[in-house]
Predict the structure.
Amino acid sequence: MKPASLLFALASLLSLSAIAQPSTEVYLFDLKANGETISVSNPINVSANPGRYDNQPSFSKKTGKLFFVSQDASPQIDIFIYDPARGTKTNFSNNASNEYSPTLTPDGKYISCIREVDGTQLLWKFPLKKGEPVIVVPDLVIGYHAWRDDNTLVSFVLGEPQTLQISDLSVKTNTIVASNIGRSIHNIPGSQLISFLQNREGQSALIQSLNTETGKIETICEVLADSQDMAWTPDGKIIMGQGSKLFTWSASTKAWTDIADLASTFQLKGITRLAVSPKGDKLAVVVNE
């Protein structure tokens, strides 16, 4: 094969691998906490979309509805909204672009998401009511994000290495505060802090807290081996998956505790992304098919 043809083939392979997505499903569990004891029960497959990519759950803090992305046969990836009270699922974005990481904005008026248009990946926001989507940050290629408030955004920015950046939307500035980070970025309940995962060469990653006003970073705990997704409960516990098992960590115990084996109880495995409802009574879990 000629060098030019080889380069073209490699480029095509990389392009195909970039758009290929694993076959996953989003399950919704009842979540019950009694002190340090947490249990899950009554799983519902809310995506119900076998053989395709269903992922990236988050809850509306206003209504408790579940946002996630789902792939159709095109293959097109849209934002869906599941209403636990009614058991209904609706396609929210339903357009020609791909959307990822849906998140309710602090004012409750928009769903912000990573939107891929003509090969360009930017952070957009879609109004929950009528209106056109708009670009939030035009100068960063964002992979994941969390809102600190209406004007403060914390993002995983793609690059070599990937960086954690604070965007002040009121003055349009972006500040790098960490590098070589993981994809899991969350608001810490009961505080004004943001948590993120700090990768370390040859060691387990750390869950760290970020004060967006001062830039101060503090370590919370080490993550479980080979895990990179987590969620906070309203009372400040961390839930994380490892293989088919769910674990929890709290500041009082300062240890990871096994709370459920989804394979033995529900025949589910390959846990990745997680989300806890605002009331702490529901847990969304992404698993492999």
The chain has one domain: 23-288. The longest strand covers residues 24-34. The radius of gyration is 19 Å. Helices lie at 3-19, 262-266.
